[in-house]
Amino acid sequence: MRLPGRLRAALKQSPPLPPAVVVGGGLNALGVVRSLGQAGVPVWLLAGAANMPAARSRYVEAIIYDDHESSAVVDALAELAVRKPGPRRPLILTEEEKVAEISAQRARLESDYHLMLPSADIVTRLLHKEGFRKAAEAGGLAIPRSCRIRSSTDLAKIRKLIAPLIIKPAARQAAYLSTFKRAYRAEDHDQAEALLVEMLTASDDLIVQEWIDGDDSSIYFCLQFVPAQGQTPVSFVGRKLRSWPPETGGTACCIAAPEAADDLTEPTTAFFRSQGVVGFASMEYKWRSATGEYVMIEPTIGRTDHQEEVATLNGVNLPLAGYCWAIGRSLPKTEAAQPMCVWRDRDAEANATASKPGMAHPAPASAHVIDALWRADDPAPSLYDLGHRIVTKLGRLTGRTQ
Length: 402
Description:
With about 400 residues, the chain is an alpha/beta fold. About 35% of the residues lie in helices and about 25% in strands.
């Protein structure tokens, strides 16, 4: 969605705008660079591979780096600052693992980049599900009952929880994710215990939570850019329509949820303010019909969310808000889009629809469905993806005939 011409012109006034530096290459990053590029902001993209969708966007100067070492992104950013010296550049992160890496080594980058991160101890504490649980409980907030599993001696704890249960790693763990899904639902305690025994072979830090009843369209989120104290956060409240995999996966499609904005914006802001969070953050909720309340599920800290672009498409350009704050300009005004826009990850939605054809809360018939990958004014990411699929399929067919 383009900004009004007067705002684009204002952003392009001399002196030249510093580029935004975006880290990542997936659909999250693609939505961010489109949000910035369409507003007239120059964008440098650090991606781990040239074939990632965001690296093909017309809005970026792509910088490809070898993303195999834990400090690779910090090294790449430091090298970029030396190779292309200039004023401090706003740094926008789109991948969870990069938040922890950059937070831990922020001293190497702070003189060259506006990091837009809370302090290192806040990042570490809130990126861990146990740290979030303690903070939320201390604030008297509604969250799922849970327990932390560190070894087989902890397994008896799950019997105090009411099944069904959902099991996740307590923090992002590369070794765990190379073997297991990011979350599992267990229908009873025996199934949960069997899963945990397996999962403990890859991780010694797991969280088991009580399942909040309801399908994926009962999941809401509040995306924010949180400026320094004294300034009101820029917020957008949305609702998932489908997830992939169903019940435990990421967003497949979502829409604005103005009906929940009043209920979710204030508690999200209050929680992040109480914890000292600044920069990009979001909170996921699930509506618990039995008690008539929104239950906090988990936060995102220091980065944009997978579906961040749904906010831009519906009139709230959060990446632009972060950029403007970092360079000392007024935050952009927001205006709800009409008709409402649905953000759709095409492949994930196709899989989710095939798995569960019905949708409890479909989008309004007037809603405009926008594909996360395909755009007529930025076609290269989608065309490259299509070409890659064709080549892959031909390779498989050729291999079968040999």
